[in-house]
Design a protein that fits this description.
Number of strands: 17
Distance between the termini: 43 Å
Oligomer: single chain
Largest sheet: 6 strands, mixed
Strand content: 15-25%
Low-confidence stretches: 1-32, 166-199
Shape: globular
Helix content: 10-25%
Mean pLDDT: 82
Order of helices and strands: HEEEEEEEEEEEEEHHHHEHHEEEHHHH
């Protein structure tokens, strides 16, 4: 039965793209001109509806003012740049409600360029690489997950939006607030990489390729031996989850009660999450264990959560670095949220499941393009997103991962 082997969630990013708080373009009579890394003040943006926010005096904001958005809204502004832009940076802070942070989506000329949870209650910078020619552009920042109860009121304050030009340095990004995660006891000896000391030491480009379908996966220790240790850690807030592995009872419940993977069940049984290290070291470990190109995994993690393990998507159903959906993958939660290694181990095993040709049920999927077969890495990555084979949703997702791969977003200043 297909239901016994289906791994990938229904389109997840589409539902997560209804995140959003808008900070962008105030329509002016004449286009203001920006050169290189000029910042657009939030208070100069036009908010629609106007009643959804207001300009506040804020000593922590640049210029002493900020645009506070307390209801669903879009802030927009038209600009003209005198240089090509290579990075978009938003400086904002948020106020949670019911444990969920405000979420923003930023578009440039109608194309979504950024989505982020504004998890810090202090101003932090959220950035993404892009390629934007000089000239007239329209910016929008969308805030869409507003909530107010008798106990809390979710909102977002936008200080600045910056298009970083080719002749300027990219502003450094501040780490968002931590997620609350629980500490677990390892089921056995755990392979551990050294704890991070700084955020320096960006990994060099990797030439690793996908191992052939059906190749035996590495055990945890052999995969750990292939990890390049470094102090590179752009997400210090992942520290607790990075040092947490599943308990023996959690793994037993997952193996006995989770959705079985049919002819690929032996892959599922090898998922352990039995590694500790920095975020990038855990990415390396999972890629080595399951024979995947490490830079592709890094890029996909950018698209999924921008490497923020605390991110919760799909209205509270998708968890961790690679956004594992709880009702598609029963008994993965809370491990998918509390253990970065389990999250990546499960994700990488799923990609290997598709790549090794275990998803014959895919050929019965309506909307698929072509015939499913093993050995197609990009098709496997698209299936992680859409649960289908090279359909429109898959192809859109694949393009985003390829863009992050080409940009090497994780290696950019301000990531």
């Amino acid at each position: 039965m297909r239901s016994h082997v289906r791994l990938a969630p229904k389109p997840r990013l589409r539902s997560r793209t209804t995140l959003a708080a808008t900070i962008a373009t105030a329509v002016l009579a004449a286009f203001p001109t920006l050169a290189q890394a000029a910042a657009i003040p939030g208070e100069t943006m036009t908010l629609k509806p106007a009643s959804s926010g207001e300009v506040f005096a804020d000593s922590a904001a640049n210029g002493g003012k900020t645009l506070k958005i307390h209801s669903k809204a879009v802030a927009n502004r038209s600009i003209r740049t005198t240089d090509r832009a290579t990075r978009l940076v938003v400086r904002a802070r948020g106020k949670r409600c019911s444990g969920v942070a405000p979420r923003i989506t930023v578009t440039v000329d109608g194309v979504r360029r950024m989505k982020a949870s504004v998890t810090s209650n202090r101003y932090a910078k959220y950035s993404v690489g892009l390629k934007l020619g000089k000239g007239a552009h329209r910016l929008k920042v969308i805030y869409g997950n507003d909530l107010a109860t008798g106990n809390c009121d979710r909102n977002v304050s936008v200080d600045t939006v910056t298009l970083v030009g080719t002749g300027s340095k990219s502003p450094a990004a501040s780490a968002p607030a931590p997620a609350s995660v629980s500490k677990a006891t390892a089921p056995g000896p755990t392979t551990t990489a050294p704890a991070p000391a700084t955020s320096a030491g960006v990994p060099s480009p990797s030439s690793a390729t996908t191992v052939a379908p059906g190749t035996l996966v590495l055990n945890d220790a052999d995969a750990a031996a292939r990890v390049r240790r470094s102090t590179f850690e752009p997400r210090l807030r992942n520290a607790t989850a990075n040092q947490t592995v599943p308990t023996a009872l959690q793994l037993q419940a997952f193996r006995l009660s989770g959705v079985k993977w049919g002819s690929g069940e032996d892959l599922r049984q090898k998922i352990t999450g039995n590694f500790k290290g920095t975020t990038d070291e855990i990415i390396q470990w999972a890629a080595a264990k399951w024979g995947l190109p490490v830079d592709v995994v890094r890029a996909q993690a950018v698209v999924e959560t921008y490497w923020h393990n605390e991110y919760v998507g799909d209205q509270g159903h998708s968890f961790g670095l690679m956004q594992i959906k709880d009702f598609v993958a029963p008994f993965t939660h809370p491990m998918s949220a509390t253990s970065t290694a389990f999250n990546l181990d499960y994700y990488a095993a799923s990609i290997r499941y598709y790549y090794d040709g275990h998803s014959d049920w895919m050929n019965n999927q309506p909307g698929r393009v072509g015939t499913y077969a093993g050995g197609d890495l990009w098709g496997s990555i698209g299936a992680w997103f859409s649960g289908n084979w090279h359909d429109e949703g898959s192809e859109d997702y694949i393009a985003k991962v390829k863009n992050a791969l080409a940009d090497r977003t994780w290696a950019q200043p301000g990531f």
